[in-house]
Amino acid sequence: MRLEVPEPGAIYTVGLNYDGPGAPPRPERPLIYGKSASAVVGEGATIDWDRALTANVDAECELGVVIGTLAWNVEPGNAAAHVLGYTIVNDISSRDPWLDGDQWLLGKSMPGFCPVGPHVVTPDQLDPSDVRLGCTINGEPIQDGRTSSMRFPVAEIISFLSRHVALRSGDLIATGTPVRLASPPGPDRRLLPGDTATAWIEGIGELTTHIA
What we know:
Elements: E1 2-3, E2 11-15, E3 31-35, E4 40-41, E5 46-47, E6 57-58, E7 61-67, E8 83-90, E9 93-94, E10 114-121, E11 132-137, E12 140-146, H1 154-162, E13 172-174, E14 196-201, E15 205-211
Parallel strand pairs: 2-13, 4-10, 5-15
Antiparallel strand pairs: 1-10, 2-3, 6-9, 7-8, 7-13, 8-10, 11-12, 11-14, 14-15
């Protein structure tokens, strides 16, 4: 079943969560960052931002987990019972450290920096443990990976978060992003005016964002 994407409450993102060539060392625990709900836009949105503030902005495809029921202090084996479904998140992020140092909240939360969609696929239709996902800019691939490369799988992320915060219905977790490809246009290719970024996940679809 495919559902409309709900308006999220809290948005959590997970850092350094994929193995792959050139990946940094695995952290001891999930690294949790945040995005403002005001950054959310839908499929086909056109986004813009002040390039004088930051021109160093990336697109990142991530498997999004939408919480369905209150999750507080849940064990990994019970985490799936709290999931409404799965969607695509393009965790658009500034790489400029002067925005917020090692926290990255401001650099992840500008208007339009959280495209989500195009819909939510329910758990009976998708097993998130090993699906292919990636991202292109103007049709050129910048990411191509599988969720089986996650260092902390979905159930562990939900369990870890729920030991610290109460996850409520509609909350959104972006579970991390595959390592950037070394092939052209290369890992240093940033988003430019006129670009089209397409994040895609097997079994969910495509999420397209236009850069003004």
